[in-house]
Amino acid sequence: MKFKRSQFREAELSDQEMMALRGIAGGGFIALPLCKRLQKLGLLEKENDRWAITQQGHIRLMFWGAR
């Protein structure tokens, strides 16, 4: 079975979305549309009526900070 390289490519995030992800990691409040978008990408999850960063979200933040 062959896979196309683009099949597993991650979605590019805007600066605003990355700042929102960092804000949630810091315990801040972020607008609902941004949270829904990040949830759809698998970077956030709803946990006990609160947004929490998934493991994939932490990885994305680590690599974004390294750039």
List keywords for this structure.
67 residues, mainly alpha, two-stranded antiparallel ribbon, 2 strands, 48% helix
What order do the helices and strands follow?
HHEEH
Q: What's the number of extended β-strand segments?
A: 2
SS summary, helix count:
3
In terms of DSSP E residues, the strand content is 5-15%
> Quick check: average pLDDT?
83
Overall form: globular
Major sheet attributes: 2 strands, antiparallel
Q: Give the distance, in angstroms, between the N- and C-terminal Cα atoms.
A: 34 Å
Helix content: 40-55%
Describe the structure.
This protein has a two-stranded antiparallel sheet. The protein has 67 residues and is mainly alpha-helical. The radius of gyration is 13 Å and the shape is globular. It has a domain at 31-67. The termini are far apart. The relative contact order is 0.16. Helices cover 48% and strands 9% of the residues. The chain has helices spanning 15-25, 32-40, 55-66; strands at residues 44-46, 51-53.
